[in-house]
Design brief:
Jelly Rolls, alpha/beta, Spore Coat Polysaccharide Biosynthesis Protein SpsA, Chain A, 34% strand, 11 helices, 3 domains, six-stranded antiparallel sheet, 23% helix
Amino acid sequence: MIPVILSGGSGTRLWPLSRGAYPKQFLPLVSDKTMVQETVLRLEGLEHLKAPIAVCNEVHRFMMAEQLREIDAQPEAIILEPVGKNTAPAVALAALAAKNPDAILLVLPADHVIEDIPAFQQAVIKAGLLAEQGYLVTFGIVPTAAETGYGYIKRSAENIADAYKVAEFVEKPDAVVAKAYVNSGEYYWNSGMFAFKAGRYLEELEKFSPEMLAACRLSFAGALTDVDFVRLNKDAFMQCPSDSIDYAVMEKTDKAVVIPLDAGWNDVGSWSALWDVRKKDCFGNALSGDVIAIDTENSFIHSGNKLVAAIGVQDMIIIETDDAVMIAPKDRVQEVKKIVALLKNDKRAEADLHRKVYRPWGYYDSVDSGERHKTKHIVVKPGAKLSVQKHHHRAEHWVVVKGTAIVSKGDETILLSENESTYIPLGVIHSLENPGVISLEMVEVQSGSYLGEDDIIRFEDKYGRT
């Protein structure tokens, strides 16, 4: 069995913690591990498990590789989608990467919470046995409420080894219909998790969406392998239709079965959903960070940097980060995505970026900025190196505050230690490297007429960035 980790979501409803360049699956929202890491770790103990295949956006490739490395999970492949085309093509690419048509793919979105790991693993074992028989298995969550935010799966009366033949997939219902679904006992929430043989999935996809499979085959055949990553042929993939597994295959095949799963599942699709799964105090509050709450009940309050004090608050979401504060009633958190849409429309960086921006070599934190200056705190990991580059519109001053730096500028190479500095004039080709065994920390002061991150001309980069 090969775990397939799908990590294409943007998590806009969990803004401002989740952002386009750093979505919720890469955040430690429930434990000290990120959601991607939890997705992999909950498989520990299962037998005959192969290395995972991850499918993610090209922008997130270094985060995916680093977070898997942190938990000692060496992936079979990290497939980079040049554009999002929904889940059906993503799984087709994973099936092609598996190489063995008899390999069972366990398809798992990277942003779910599952509390009862033994129950989940038992369901996975059952799914593996059914997949061996040629079935296409989905996991139906036993509903605990009449939720209108989920799609549903209706089971048939035909029972197959603790599973049921799928009668139909249905869209998100209104409240009245959802209540009828739950009361009938015949419907489950659609979890978006699946198990099937790689070859069987490709056979069904070819039957029901041959143009999709053809585009996936062409893009995969033209892919380039770069260190950890499989870079698809972009032109071929752009021609691929966009569709979910449900629409493309599962609704049409006569081999779909559903396994009921009652394991404390939550897709953490909103702040209220995250409040549901977080530990709470005796007043029903989920508090994170430096928070003082007086006469406050049933609220989620998160402090990222500053003290957050709340008095007389009930059923509210209050989220503070280094560059944004979001406040909303708990019953209106689905509207957070409207804020993100407005930010994108106004071309504001807060839609996609935090003040702290992660790079394959480490990260930088923009601590101050003005019309002609910007100050950054830069941290470079041991052995890492920034690209060889130059800028047309800005000069830079670097001051080392911790560790050691090798700086190349023009024809000169110098070694800087703590409390030493250098100046990079506008237009000079330069690079920065950490030769030490501890992180390099430095303060960078930029000055010039334009200070945007797109004023970088790269000549060489060890991470394959253009």
